[in-house]
Amino acid sequence: MGAALGLPLAALVVQYADWHAMFWVTAAPSTAGLLLTRWAVRESPVRSPGRFDTWGALGLAAGLVCLPLAVSQGGQWGWGSGPVLGLLADAVVVLAVWWRTQLRAEQPLVHLRLASGRRVALPHLTALLAGFAFYANSLVTAQLVRAPAESGYGLELSIVATGLCLLPNGVIMLALLPVSARVSTARGPRVTLTLGGAVMALGYAVRIVDSRELWVIVLGAAVVATGTTFAYSAPPTLILRAVPVEQTASANGVNVLMRTVGQSVSSAAVAAVLVRHTASAGGTEFRTLGGYRLAFALAGTVALVGCAVAPAIPSDTAPAPRSGGRGAGREGPAQETALEGS
C-alpha cells in the first residue's frame, strides 16, 4: 500500500523539484515512522536473547545486489558479456556460501531449517511471486501512459498525471484491507491468497486486451491492485500459524524481504523485456506496445503460479512447530487476530 501511494506523491516531487530531493522527502516520513513505532508499538513480553548476524546480513545483501543487477543489465550489456556472467557467478557463490554459513550459525539472520518447511517456505514463495506481479503493474503503467504519440498508442501524460493514474491503486488497497482480513477469517488465508493471485491475473488479462484507452489502463491497474491487497495480506497470517511465537518477527521479516526481492526481480525482468522491444518514429525512440503486453503476460503468469502454489500450503489444522525454550509455543488465535485487525 505504501508503494502504491508513494508513486503519485513521488511524481509531484519529480515534476516540481530536482529528483535529488526525493531522498530528503523520503527521509522525513521514514524518521516519523521510526518515532511513531517507538511510541505506539508495545514491546513483546516474549524475549529471545541473541545478537544480530552482521556477516549474514552483508552476505545476503551482496547476493541480492548481484542477481537483480545482472538481470536488469543483461539486455544492454549482453547476456554473454563478462560483467553479466561475473555478476551471476558472484550471486551464486555468495548466496551458496551464505546459505551454508546460516545453517552453521548459532544465531543466524534467517533460520533456514525453519524456513525450509512447507508451511513457511510456500508462504515465502507466494510473497515473492506477489511482489513480482504487483510491481510490474506500477512500473509498466508509469511508462506506458507517458509514451509519445508517435508510438501510435502513447498518451504523453505528464509525470503528475501519471502519478494520478496510479493513485486509485493505493486507495483501493487501503479500502480493501479490512475485506481481505474478513475473507481470511471466514475462509482461511489460503483462500485469500488464491483469490488474490487469480484477480491479479485477471487484471493483467484486461491490460493485454486493451492498453490504448486511459480508462481501460486505469481499470486494469485497479484490478491488479485489488488482487494485490488479498495476496499481500495472507502470507503473514500463514506464517504466524506456522512458527513458534519467538520466531514470528524473524519469519515475517523474511517474508517482507521475499516480497521486496520479488519487486526487485520484477523491475529487472521488465527492464530486460522492454529494452529488447523498441522502435522509433519521427526521430523518437519508444517501447513497443507488444513489449508492454509481453511484460503484462509475464506478470500475469507469475500471478497464476502464485495462485497455484497457495492451495499447496499445508492446512491450518496442521500442528505448529514448538521451540524448546521457556515461553515458546503457539499463541495462534491471538497473533492471527492481531494481524488481521491491523
TrEMBL record:
GO cellular-component term (any): plasma membrane
Main localization, broad class: membrane
Domain of life: Bacteria
Transmembrane segments: 21-40, 52-71, 77-99, 120-137, 157-179, 191-208, 214-232, 294-313
GO BP terms in the entry: response to antibiotic
Record region (Disordered): 315-342
Any Pfam family: MFS_1
Protein name (database record): MFS transporter
Keyword Cytoplasm annotated: no
Keywords: Antibiotic resistance, Membrane, Transmembrane, Transmembrane helix
MF-aspect GO terms: transmembrane transporter activity
Location within or outside the cell: Cell membrane
Major facilitator superfamily (MFS) profile domain mapped to chain residues: 1-318
Membrane topology, from the record: Multi-pass membrane protein
Gene3D superfamilies xrefs: MFS general substrate transporter like domains
